[in-house]
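Q: Joint fold for the lines below.
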Amino acid sequence: MQPRLVAFRIERRIISAAVFAGHHLEHADTRHLASRYPKALDSATGYVNWIKTMFLIETAIVEKQTTSAPTRRGKLTGEVVTQLRGAGVPVFEIEPSDLLPAFGNPPCRSRAEVRGSVGLIWPSLVTDKQHPSSLDAAALGLYFQIQKLLSPN
Amino acid sequence: MNGILDSMLNKSRLFIPETVEGYIALQLARALNDTGDVWKYIAMFDHLPISAILGALNHSRTRQTTRDSMTALFEWEINRLIQKGGQYAA
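A: Joint structure:
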């Protein structure tokens, strides 16, 4: 079976995942998180564990935090990264400044432009059932998979 | 007149991927410093499987010399593969 990769987009009240086999998007969805941090963390780690087990994940990707200030999003991301690494899943962190320009020529400058492109690639992600952050997760996964594919051996 | 032509030329250089192949073509064009004509790279997917295109990229990387640009080597290899019927031979 082809190894699977998951890309997570984590926000204050949301965690989205996009699962890839090669450059094929197999699954994408989102969980809303509670406003109380302990409950939110519990939901996020439960969701990450479900994705990891359900799709036999071998690699995970998250967006690198660009601010050093302690934020709820940063704290949640740190916990998810620790959880995955603790379970033996390698986690790669992608700089937003590398991700955004990849989705257009001339390079995209905003997340909205990237979402526009990813929505054209996978129109099923632009529905009422999907949160826009699932587009961010899919962008992250596609970026990583194709970088890996085109990198020198 | 030149303004209209320039604007048409610039429009053809604008590219937003609408498919996975389009996204790969854009990254391929970037890897080869040739983003002026991404459509050329998209057209390759009509003739060759991605494994053959990646094979041609690696081939041009390893054979690159100071005299021959990697882009020229890549295009030469792609044309050779298309003429051969899409089968990649290292």
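Q: Anything notable?
A: The first helix of chain A runs from residue 37 to 54. Chain A is about 45% helix and 25% strand.
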